[in-house]
Automatic annotation (TrEMBL):
Protein name, per record: Alcohol dehydrogenase-like C-terminal domain-containing protein
Named cofactor requirement(s): Zn(2+)
Record-linked Pfam families: ADH_zinc_N
InterPro entries, alphabetized: ADH-like_C (IPR013149), GroES-like_sf (IPR011032), NAD(P)-bd_dom_sf (IPR036291)
Family designation: Belongs to the zinc-containing alcohol dehydrogenase family.
Length: 281
């Protein structure tokens, strides 16, 4: 189920962008409770029947996967044989890579400052990975971002135009350096999608945005058609969600699940990608 009850009557709902509904009752967004319970009331059009070959755990993972579908397909309008760079290799970034690969991307490049995350991304859905260089002393953030994009292009054989350029950027980190690097990196006429929520105000190379005639969009949650495609891609074995479930907890141990997610790793040192809490027995 989509964990947000939209009103169905406002301008955005009626125009097919219900993710922008101002009256949405979104689970776990105060004052609304989350979905940790035996029952959860939701308009029926936001609930989906899972195909027989999918588990309830797969079903729970449709929420983050739909964020990837919304950014890469619905807004990014990816086409087969394109090159995509995803900044941030957390759950949303990994799933964006998976969607890009499933929809026929030629190269899927993961960017992160954590080598372990990059190693995981390489084994999951990334064809290439990039660990940014260290920032020089006294270097401004924008100069650092420009240098980062230039080094990335040189090392990965990326160009500003043509078949070796980056068609689509999915920014899933929210870090200023990644936003700027993505705008420098993307091809002339390319598309940049902001998914990560982080630094609220970022200096943008606006001239570059205009001379390259970039398409820049914000991506918020998911809307019409995103859950359907997410379910279909997993049901058709084009995306495997199981490797992303790093931790599983019983319903009664829900507090421990939140603590583990907050800490980023469990007591045994294993890093958290997604922690799943079982339903009540
Ligand atoms: Zn509405």
């Amino acid at each position: 189920m989509e964990p947000g009850a939209t009103c169905g009557y406002c301008e955005d709902c009626k125009h097919g962008r219900y993710q922008l509904c101002p009256d949405v009752e979104f689970a776990a967004t105060p004052p609304y409770d989350g979905t940790l319970g035996r029952y959860y009331k939701l308009p029926s059009h936001l609930a989906y029947l899972l195909p027989d070959n999918l588990s309830l755990e797969d079903g729970a993972m449709m929420e983050p996967l739909s964020v990837g579908v919304h950014s890469v397909r619905t807004l990014g309008q990816i086409k087969a044989n394109q090159t995509v760079a995803v900044f941030g290799a957390g759950p949303v970034g990994l799933l964006a890579l998976a969607v890009a690969k499933a929809l026929g991307a030629k190269r899927t490049i993961a960017v992160d400052i954590d080598q372990n995350r990059l190693d995981f991304a390489k084994g999951y859905a990334a064809t290439d990975v990039w660990l940014p260089p260290k920032k020089n002393e006294g270097e401004s953030i924008i100069d650092y971002s420009r240098r980062n994009s230039e080094e990335m292009k040189a090392k990965l054989g990326l160009t500003d135009r043509g078949p070796t350029s980056v068609d689509l950027i999915i920014e899933a980190s929210g870090a200023a350096v990644c936003v700027q690097t993505g705008l420098f990196l993307v091809r002339t006429g390319g598309t940049f999608i902001q998914v990560g929520m982080g630094t609220p105000e970022v200096t943008i190379p606006i001239t570059m945005l205009l001379v390259k005639e970039l398409t820049v969009k914000g991506s918020f949650r998911y809307g019409p058609g995103d859950y359907e495609l997410a379910i279909a891609l997993v049901a058709q074995n084009k995306i495997d969600l199981k490797p992303l479930v790093s931790h599983r907890f019983k319903f009664d141990d829900a507090v421990e699940a939140f603590q583990t997610t907050k800490a980023g790793k469990s007591a045994d040192g294993k890093g958290v990608i997604k922690a799943i809490i079982d339903g009540p027995q």
